[in-house]
Amino acid sequence: MAAIRYELEKQCSITGARAGKIHTPHGTFETPIFMPVGTQATVKTVAPEELKTMGAGIILSNTYHLFLRPGHNLIKEAGGLHSFMNWDRAILTDSGGFQVFSLGPLRKISEEGVAFRSHIDGSKQFLSPEIAMEIQMALGSDIAMAFDECVPYPADHQYAKQSTERTTRWAERCKIANTRTADQGVFGIIQGGMYKDLRDMSVRDLVSLDFPGYAVGGLSVGEPKPLMYEILEHTVHQLPASKPRYLMGVGTPDCLVEGVMHGVDMFDCVFPTRVARNGTVMTRQGRLVVRNAAYERDFRPIEENCDCYTCRNYTRAYLRHLFKADEIFGLRLATIHNLHFLISFMRDMRQSIMENRFVTFREEFLAGYSPKDKGFM
RNA sequence: GGAUGGGUUCCCGAGUGGCUAAAGGGAGCAGACUGUAAAUCUGCCGGCUCCGCCUUCGCUGGUUCGAAUCCAGCCCCAUCCA
Question: Is the CB of A275 under 7 A from strand B?
């Protein structure tokens, strides 16, 4: 049996939003789902037990970072990533493709692969589809991502085309290189920049390679939101309904709702965890910069009806104090809230799909939400 | 009572005649953050009727075209001696 299997439970007849389940070698999780990011074999500041308490069913980790440090062979020796980091639920590993994008000046792309300058010590490193697969097989993640190039924005059509075609060739090499098929599934990554014809091409080519799941990459890279939604909508519905769909790198509530509406099942994003460490917490109404002076004497929880550990026990004033005083507990409390918030948000969204009221859910959410926040309440 | 060192914008602390509203740091305030080079980064930080003006470097007076910077007296602070 395939390592990764998608089960569609319910679909919104109006929007196409899907509720389902994904079965992996390390358990089943319900979709749509948000995957907390644990780049370096840890979701920064929180323990695996805490992630479970929040209801996290799968987390993401990173090939590139673990390859550089501590090295995939060490992790293999430790019994694989699950054992190494004490996480027994599902893990998806990104391939290092995003680093091709984000490490910009430190990297050089060729047909063979990508030469990096390590951001840690400046040493020369090389990643190719074959190496990325070798690393991910050693890590033993449940879902491995194909090695791709995330097309930057803006990019001209010629560059986007050439890059996307190369990503397809790399995807094919990944598929051939991955031999751990019994307990690991490789997802292909759709690219194509902001060009619909290239997205069509990418979908067609990757779907013909028959991956157990597909990711939409190259979005949320600086383009305006309407454009992102337009490309997303254009792309997602072309993907096979029987396979999971994963929108990479998206994680603000408004984007999640729109992603789900267009039929996406999986999301990941550093946003909730990064922003938490910088003093911002997320709410149904928008962001709240809890580090701001406005909350100095605000003795309410972040969200009145939130049942996360942070909201059940601490106030905005206390969080602000911890941030002002540079106390690491503040980073933890904010991270716990933000992750709990997104995970519950997705669960509520799923519930609304199951109960045939997703459209209402979306409308009500959007009515009360300000994407840029500030000064509400 | 005497000796020496010192008093700079919220704090610490540079600055010893014009290029100084005054380095730098801290604190404070705000912003950014979307497959993590991020517990990071950026901006503001005397006042105003803000492309110019006003006030500020212990206090008062003086020298000078011009003073936080030089002179005089005074007031505080620190350490040492009586």
Answer: yes
Name, in order, each residue with C-beta under 8 angstroms of A163's C-beta and a sequence gap of 6 or more.
A149, A151, A155, A191, A193
- Rg of chain A taking only CA atoms, in angstroms: 20
Residues 3-42 of A with CB under 7 A from strand B: 37, 39
Rounded distance between C-alpha atoms, residue A38 and residue A36, angstroms: 7
Determine which one of A142, A205, A265, A268 is catalytic.
A268
Task: Output the CA–CA distances (angstroms, integers) from residue A208 to A168, A178, A202, A203, A212, in the order listed.
Answer: 11, 17, 10, 8, 11
Of residues 78 to 97 in chain A, which lie within 7 A of strand B by their beta carbon?
A: 94-95, 97
A129 closest CA partner among A60, A44, A189 = A189
pLDDT in tens, A117-146: 999 999 999 999 999 999 999 999 999 999
* Strand B atom within 7 Å of A291 CB: yes
| Nearest protein residue by Cα to C1' of nucleotide B33 | A275
- Nearest nucleotide (C1') to the CA of residue A191? B35
Q: What is the ipTM of this complex?
A: 0.92
- For the segment A62-112, what is each residue's pLDDT rounded down to a tens digit? 999 999 999 999 999 999 999 999 999 999 999 999 998 898 888 999 999
Residues 105-164 of A with CB under 7 A from strand B: 105-106, 119, 145, 148, 150
- Whole-number Å distance between alpha carbons of A178 and A168: 15
Query: Does residue A175 have a pLDDT over 50?
Result: yes
3-state secondary structure of A281: strand
pLDDT in tens, A332-344: 999 999 999 999 9
Whole-structure pTM value: 0.95
